[in-house]
Design brief:
The complex is a heterodimer of chains A (365) and B (325).
Chain A: H1 30-55, H2 69-76, E1 84-86, H3 92-97, H4 102-110, H5 132-146, E2 161-166, H6 173-185, E3 189-195, E4 198-199, E5 202-203, H7 204-207, H8 215-219, E6 223-227, H9 231-246, E7 252-257, H10 276-283, H11 287-297, H12 303-323, H13 332-338, H14 345-364
Parallel strand pairs in A: 1-2, 2-3, 3-7, 6-7
Antiparallel strand pairs in A: 4-5
Chain B: E1 2-6, H1 7-21, E2 25-29, H2 45-49, E3 54-56, H3 61-73, E4 77-81, H4 92-99, H5 102-105, E5 115-120, H6 135-139, E6 145-148, H7 152-164, E7 169-174, E8 181-185, E9 197-200, E10 205-209, H8 212-226, E11 231-235, E12 238-240, H9 244-254, E13 257-264, H10 269-281, E14 290-294, H11 305-308, H12 312-323
Parallel strand pairs in B: 2-3, 2-4, 4-5, 5-7, 6-7, 10-11, 10-13, 13-14
Antiparallel strand pairs in B: 1-8, 6-12, 9-11
Helix pairs in contact in B: 1-7, 3-4, 8-12
Classes of the chains: A alpha/beta (365), B alpha/beta (325).
Bound molecules: thiamine diphosphate.
The site of thiamine diphosphate has 15 residues of chain A, from β4.
InterPro entries (chain B): THDP-binding, Transketo_C/PFOR_II, Transketolase-like_Pyr-bd, Transketolase_C
Pfam families (chain B): Transket_pyr, Transketolase_C
Protein name (chain B): Alpha-ketoacid dehydrogenase subunit beta
């Protein structure tokens, strides 16, 4: 594959074979891996459900994650209490692993609200303006450092930030500025780039002439390319990067080499810009299939387990569907009340004007 | 407890007080540490408070503002310095797409108690991009508050009020007035930041202005006074939200209004003020609201800036036109 380095870290082959690596090892148990597989299957299921909800007109848009389950689950499982996540707009599996209610995601894409997550302290808002969040993450990481939450002898006192961005985002000024700030201040931030090969219709070749992970060196911190469809490798590499950050050793960059198997969003038509052969080639690297093969061969899961997860997925889908009518739309009053922390007379006047206007309909009804 | 200080020194004192008062206050910007900023507004502060409180930033405006967003999320109150007005634009996206919106998007969970200090306006003979008046871009953006000081006392107090505010404040410093001295009263309770100030009382017409134009308007009022015309000068101080109470009560009395600003005429602050006065005081005013502003051109080369900037004469011409109705 173009852009795939000989140094790409892989611990589980597409055929489900375990590999050894000199620097990175998966330290979890087989039970952990069963848990990861469950996360990935349920994330895939939820994603399919949300896509269908968009088709039914229940969501304005959806950003499918199909194909990126391992990159997201593996990295999210390296996040621990005290760490903070700055997502882009496709990190549904990360949200799921961190316990953000999935209805929060649906509410955002439905347009019920602007994204006031329930766990905003640990999982920040989705970001639509490409790359902006990399600076927020870096600033937050600087704050962690000022607060003395990095490099303490007692590791439990240490925290780090992980920020997600895409391959297209790597072209943005903000992202490059974030790399500079992170390096200059040695901020405890991990840049987790999901190189899914495409920025809407633009291939990675248009964004970078060299593999993205090699850029990190130019900014003065380590960059690692990992097989983004290998959850073991992603977990191992992210553990390493987060631990470095927490220990005060500064930023690092992870290029998760993966593939967006579906459309960019529900408005997109990938057949216009990429060949079916490419999709086929990547299907052979499916993150869910390879872990399933491995765990089956290990005897850790069987048909009954898979059937049970399938049932769980169906229930999750039903819950997602059932949650739609329960989603409460924000109100003009709430919006008026939250434009500013300290209210203004001028806006209060507009709120009253709106309220009177709205009330006039009720009287007529 | 008062002292005569330049506006630059008054800002420095205000920042110092804010740093002392709250350990969560941080300053960040290009050259603000050892150098004390290109206008020396932060002089001596890094030596006193250390490199983690007064932070020299890499040369990247979006980076400065974007990292300040993250610092706000972490509970800090960053005060960032943009070196010159014309260089805020690389950071403009962060200001309008992030700083202004995060409070509402998060239903109030992520306040942005950030101050963005911008030395603004012309009249110092600078090269291009060093003399601009971008206030309307910010005042047009819901979620931001925008203020401008015009004298040392306000500079001292308003910068502290802006830092204490839980909302993001774009703080415009009229750079050509940095070295104007004034009495700073350290003990008297200041007016609220979002309140206009009647800088001079008069009866025949009201000049509405802010920042660098307040002194020009006061000069114009002094000349007019010698000629027997009594002009009231209202220093808006706050551009978003605008203090309509003070403005309309003044114009209700004088029945004539002239808005004066350096920024280009079309869709400038004056447009909003004129529209609002026409709406609220249509039957009271004796003349339409007039505007004296910069022309609708990019800021001109320094050797002709005097032609471009509102001057005492242009203001007095407008006063004559208003009185002729
Ligand atoms: C500043 C900005 N420009 C353009 C867009 C429109 N847009 C949305 S997603 C996208 C592609 C992003 O690609 P990439 O960073 O690779 O992320 P991916 O969607 O593949 O995860 C574009 C151009 C945007 N949201 N923000």
């Amino acid at each position: 594959m173009r852009g795939q380095s000989h140094d790409m870290v892989q611990l589980l082959t597409p055929d489900g074979e375990r590999l050894e690596h000199d620097e990175f090892a998966f330290t979890g148990t087989t039970d952990d891996l069963v848990g990861f597989l469950r996360d990935m299957i349920l994330a895939r299921r939820f994603d399919a459900e949300a896509t269908a909800l968009q088709r039914h007109g229940e969501l304005g848009l959806w950003t499918p994650l199909l194909g990126q389950e391992a990159a997201q689950v593996g990295s999210a499982r390296a996040v621990r209490e005290g760490d903070v996540v700055f997502p882009s707009y496709r990190e549904h599996a990360v949200a799921m692993v961190l316990g953000v209610p999935l209805t929060n995601l649906l509410g955002l894409f439905r347009g019920s609200n602007g994204g006031d997550w329930e766990k905003l302290e640990t999982f920040k808002n989705y970001q639509i303006v490409i790359g902006c969040q990399t600076l927020h993450a870096t600033g937050y990481a600087m704050g962690l450092q000022f607060d003395g939450a990095v490099g303490n002898d007692d590791d439990a006192d240490n925290s780090a930030v992980i920020v997600y961005h895409g391959d297209g985002a790597a072209s943005q000024g903000d992202v490059n500025e974030a790399y500079v700030f992170a390096a200059s201040y040695n901020a405890p931030v991990v840049f987790f780039c999901q190189n899914n090969q495409w920025a809407i219709s633009e291939p990675i070749a248009l964004q970078s002439r060299i593999p993205l992970f090699q850029r990190a060196q130019g900014f003065g911190f380590p960059g690692v390319q990992v097989d983004g469809n290998d959850v073991l490798a992603v977990k191992a590499v992210t553990d390493w990067a987060m631990q470095r950050a927490r220990a005060g050793e500064g930023p690092s960059f992870i290029e998760a080499f993966t593939y967006r198997m579906g459309a960019h969003t529900t408005s997109d038509d990938p057949t216009k810009y990429r060949r079916a052969a490419e999709d086929e080639a990547w299907k052979g690297r499916d993150p869910v299939a390879r872990l399933t093969t491995y765990l089956r061969n290990e005897g850790a899961i069987d048909d009954a387990w898979l059937a049970a997860i399938d049932d769980e997925g169906k229930a999750l889908g039903a819950d997602a569907r059932a949650s739609i009518p329960q989603l409460e739309d924000t109100t003009m009053d709430k919006l008026f009340a939250t434009v500013y922390a300290e209210p203004t007379v001028a806006l209060e006047a507009q709120r009253r004007e709106y309220a009177e206007y709205a009330a006039s309909f009720e009287e007529n009804a | 407890m008062s002292e005569t200080l330049t506006m630059a020194k008054a800002l420095n004192r205000g920042l110092r007080r804010a740093l002392q008062a709250d350990p969560k206050v941080l300053l960040a910007g290009e050259d603000i540490g050892k150098l004390g900023g290109v206008f020396r507004i932060t002089e001596g502060l890094q030596a006193e408070f250390g490199e983690n409180r007064v932070i020299d930033s890499p040369l990247a405006e979006s980076g400065i503002i974007g990292t300040a967003v993250g610092l706000c999320m972490r509970g800090y109150r960053p005060v960032v310095e943009i070196q010159f007005d014309g260089f805020v634009f690389p950071g403009f996206s962060q200001i309008v797409t992030q700083v202004a919106k995060l409070h509402m998007r998060t239903a109030g969970q992520n306040p942005m108690p950030m101050v963005i200090r911008i030395p603004f306006g012309g009249g110092i003979g600078a090269v291009e991009h060093h003399s601009e008046s971008p206030e309307a871009y910010f005042a047009h953006t819901p979620g931001l508050k925008v203020v401008s000081c015009s004298n040392a006392n306000d500079a001292y107090w308003m910068i502290q009020q802006a830092i204490q505010s839980d909302d993001p404040v774009v703080f415009l410093e009229p750079k050509r007035r940095y070295h104007v001295k004034d009495t700073v009263n350290f003990s008297a309770r200041p007016a609220p930041m979002h309140q206009a100030n009647i800088a001079r009382y008069g009866t025949d017409a009201t000049l509405l202005c802010y920042g660098p134009m307040v002194k020009t308007c006061l000069d114009a009022a002094a000349v007019a006074g010698e000629e027997g015309t009594s002009l009231e000068v209202v220093d808006l101080r706050t551009l978003s939200p605008i203090d309509w109470v003070t403005i309309t009560s003044s114009v209700r009395r004088t029945k004539r209004a002239i808005v004066v600003h350096e920024a280009p005429l079309t869709l400038g602050l004056g447009s909003e003020v004129a529209a609002r006065l026409a709406q609220d005081l249509f039957y009271v005013m004796e003349a339409p609201v007039l505007r004296v502003a910069g022309y609708d051109m990019p800021y001109p080369p320094a050797r002709v800036e005097e032609e471009y900037l509102p001057s005492v004469d242009r203001i007095l011409d407008a006063v004559d036109r208003s009185l002729a109705y």
